[in-house]
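ARCHIVE CARD
Drawer: 12
Card no.: 0347
Subject: one protein chain, sequence and derived structure
Cross-reference: see card 0346
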Amino acid sequence: MPLFSSKEFVSHSGIKLPFKIDCSFLSDDDIHCLAEIIKNKIQFHYVYGVPEGGTRLSVVLQNYVSDDGPVLIVDDVLTTGKSMHDAKDHLERAEKIDKRGAIGVVIFARGKCPHWIIPMFQSYNFI
């Protein structure tokens, strides 16, 4: 049950990558710890988990929703950012994002993130 696997695979965005990060192997305790870290840094009024990767984390983060702050969009691994942008576009069309805006958090980023997305752990030049 490795979190990191050194086998080639094709990412959700269709890119061939030399290693895989599989957050389904994070324990429930790991997810709860990550949620605690996020809630101590970011206040948010709504949370959305990008399916499938962000779902577990968003369920735990529901416990920390407040009346203030932006919409929080979460995912497990960011490679190109397409899934996060698609989620943000979807929420804007559904009018879930208001003047408070949106902020994204990913557990792992394989490189540089767009300005509105914060990586918890980030690698550079390893894609």
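Annotation on reverse: Residues 28-122 form a domain with the Rossmann fold fold (CATH 3.40.50.2020). The longest strand covers residues 71-78.
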